[in-house]
Design brief:
about 70 residues
Length: about 70
């Protein structure tokens, strides 16, 4: 699985959206509710981010997978 900008992950009751993806760093936003889109912004090293989302499920967007 490759990380991409704007991917949405669900870990437990929390949603995690990748807002900026760089070579060694990931900026992301954690949200409890997708409808309000309110949450906190965080920045982690890519390696730490991958460890954090281990066990999380990728939430597919509506437009994904259509060709």
């Amino acid at each position: 699985m490759r990380l991409q900008q704007d991917q949405l992950w669900k870990k437990g009751e929390e949603f995690i959206r990748i807002t900026r993806l760089e070579r060694f760093e990931v900026a992301y936003k954690t949200m409890a509710d997708l409808s309000t889109k309110e949450g906190e912004h965080h920045v982690l090293a890519k390696k730490e981010f991958c460890r954090m989302i281990r066990g999380a499920k990728l939430v597919e967007s509506e437009g994904e997978g259509e060709m």
